[in-house]
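User: TIGR01777 family protein, Pseudomonas lactis:
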Amino acid sequence: MHILLTGGTGLIGRQLCKHWLAQGHRLTVWSRQPETVAQVCGAQVLGVARLQEVIGAVDAVVNLAGAPIADRPWTHKRKALLWSSRIHLTETLLAWMESLEQKPAVLISGSAVGWYGDGGERELTEASGPVLDDFPSQLCIAWEETAQRAEALGIRVVLVRTGLVLSAEGGFLSRLLLPFKLALGGPIGNGRQWMPWVHIKDQIALIDFLLHKQDANGPYNACAPHPVRNREFAKTLGQVLHRPAFMPMPAFALKVGLGELSGLLLGGQKALPERLQAAGFTFQFTELRAALDDLSSRL
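Assistant: Predicted structure for TIGR01777 family protein:
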């Protein structure tokens, strides 16, 4: 199978390349820095700067590109970049697919549980609607609606609403390590907000599962079946690292320092992977402690 990836040099993309190369698939990565693709993703992976450079027919497109949403405060300029790197890039991808004589069979497009907004105490399945109309929700809704336009081209569209990915190679967990290792870790705000998490191994496995499952389409919550509250997450991470976890990050300090972005940390989603499990996907890591224990030797 010939798979085209966007976001192929990111945390999830790198692991997908490794996984699919081992399966014998042919991979092309559309990247702003195509010269780095072979080094980051594997020597057999072709990096292209323009979609017109893709060689041969493509069987599947996996669209994961997007500037990091939690790296810095959401100024007007930052919001424009977050929007462009998702919606405008996906529109470019759609125009390219429309121009092809032989179209891909499937488009797997990234999204996030932020689609729901801050869900409070509600259990959120794929049948749930958005709860709060905040910026992350608006961004994800527009991203998904853009990707779904590929259905009009006869392409199967899968939307992966990812939670917090647990990995030793980067992502949000790496940002927590220093304060926790310095015994300065703890809950954020009141610690009651829900954290939908997923182990990187399950994230790769579920994308591969959805790629090959011919009747899979629409949104899927990519998070483990047992989300935890932020306070429990902090306590469990502290136990795994053998460090205390009682230094709370006051909500007012986050609001002052991060502005609107603080809502991403102070809110959450009790998202459940109902459609994935109904489709027959089995999670390797269903409990947070087991997931963190698996990663602990590399943290």
